[in-house]
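URGENT: need a sanity check before tomorrow's submission.

F., can you look over the Pro-sigmaK processing inhibitor BofA family protein record below? I want to be sure the sequence and structure line up before it goes out.
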Amino acid sequence: MVTPIEIGLFVVALALLFGAYAVLRVVKPLIVNAVVGVIVLVVASFLGVGVEITPMAVLVCAVGGVPGALLVILLAYTGIAFAGMAVPVGVLAVA
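Structure tokens as predicted:
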């Protein structure tokens, strides 16, 4: 015989399951965007754009995704922030 406590626990478990599904459905695109943004940052650093990978740059890319990565790359390229040890391309043309 099924008791009311078992029915209540079943209903609570179903509610938690559907709630977790709803949260994951909303958060999944944000996670994908953050991962792609960090990958863009690493690829730009590997290609020699001059982006220094710091915790702040990774945080901007994780929160902002691809637009955040492009912002970090632009700021590093212009020498405003996140600039690494590599010389920007424009400086080499002056010499």
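My own read: The mean pLDDT is 83. The helical segments are 4-46, 55-78, 89-94. If you see anything odd, call me.
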